[in-house]
Amino acid sequence: MALKLLQNGRLLTRAFQNLHITPTTSTIFAKNNDLNLNFSRNTSFFVKLPAEDLWKGVTSVSNAGRKRGRAKGLVRRKDLNRGQVIGVGKANIQWPGLSAPIIRGRELIQRQQLPPDPEREAKLIKMRDAMSSKGYQKLSPLDRGWTGAKLGGRSIGAPDPIGDDNFEGFDTKVIEYKQVFNMKGNLGRKRRLSAFVVTGNHNGLAGFASAKAVDGKAVLRKAKNRAAQKLMYIELCDGHTVFHDFFCQFGLTKIFVEKKPEGFGLVCHRAIREICQLVGIKNLYAKVEGATGVQHIVKAFFLGLLKQKKFEEIAESKGLHLVEFKPELGNFPRVVASPKVCRKEDDIKYDEIMDYTQVAMNGKVVLKRKKYPPFYANTYGYHIHLKKLEGRRNHFKIKFDMLKEHGTIKSFLTDKYPDARPHGFILRDAYLKKKAEGEETSAE
């Protein structure tokens, strides 16, 4: 082999036998000083060691340092092969049989240069960093639970099918996910994971269960499949709420639940809200008193849902008609249930509880916060306002009661003096009277 160099406009050819190489130096000296070559090292610290040793130098810590908490701020290992696909690189080329099918329909695909993808490097970096910061991929805000870092409130899907039975339309929410420890005589402190979940089909079927296992995926699968075997049917009132207000208790946990009209929403504890969504309840108010452990809250609320009484059962137990007043219907009375034999007024005892709320709450009364007077209650201007308002302070309530009872605003003098009614109603009555006379004339 010969070296061909162009020097001073002429071609120099030197054979290796004319070179004198000194072993202790990295320089080649040619005869007559015509040729000088320098060798360079092609190995370094970053190429000499494998990737496993390089990552170990960045991510490892001694056992003594780990006990002192020095392992918390270490860099997590990145998978540099994540997102790399065979046949796809910086040069965006379509390779038939590798990165693209050979035949597309009736078209034979040829190798071709595609337009460059400027976001490829950014996507690879984002994909690699997703598992490096905290050990899990960032979730969408809609997929998060009660917090961004824990499993509480997160959906884990429907239970696994049992034979030919598929749980279509079901969903499972994690209520509690924690570590539990048990001291063994031969194994020492044994660590396991505990999960408490609720599953439901958003249409009255729901169940809850807890499970323990060593692996996280195993404990979630075990808990949701166990909850699917303990389903309970809960009937809904009008398809969106409970039948009546009720009180329920489990241990030291007490819950007061109130029925609410459509559009109110779910104003309650977050564990109760998850249960309501899985059962199908859309409007409800619940107040929790006492202990606030989520397992006791779930058990107490399920007990209250199962102990609900239908309207027919309440009417039959009291022997009276059950009448409902709804604000959205103008508080118009509506009989929702009637007993087979209705009691008379003489049959009702003087000390019998007739308040529907106390009957539904089983004699319990919600402790409501005391209402304090506003800051302007003792001012001079507010007292003047009350004096001016004294003559008409109950007008709105009286108008409302008149419309509810008589359908119009009138007093005991209205029959004798027809003008003794509000001005707007006089015009309305005259208009209705004139309209009725016109209809009679047209009918004739």
UniProtKB/TrEMBL annotation:
Domain S5 DRBM: 170-234
Subcellular location: Mitochondrion
A GO CC term assigned to this protein in UniProt: mitochondrial small ribosomal subunit
UniProt keyword terms in alphabetical order: Mitochondrion, Ribonucleoprotein, Ribosomal protein
Predominant location category: mitochondrion
GO MF entry, a single one: RNA binding
GO biological process entries: translation
Family matches, as InterPro entries: Ribosomal_Su5_D2-typ_SF, Ribosomal_uS5, Ribosomal_uS5_C, Ribosomal_uS5_N, Ribosomal_uS5m_N, Ribsml_uS5_D2-typ_fold_subgr
Gene3D superfamilies named among the record's database cross-references: 3.30.160.20, 3.30.230.10
Complex and partners: Component of the mitochondrial ribosome small subunit (28S) which comprises a 12S rRNA and about 30 distinct proteins.
Family, similarity comment: Belongs to the universal ribosomal protein uS5 family.
Name this polypeptide is given: Small ribosomal subunit protein uS5m
Native source organism of the sequence: Polypedilum vanderplanki
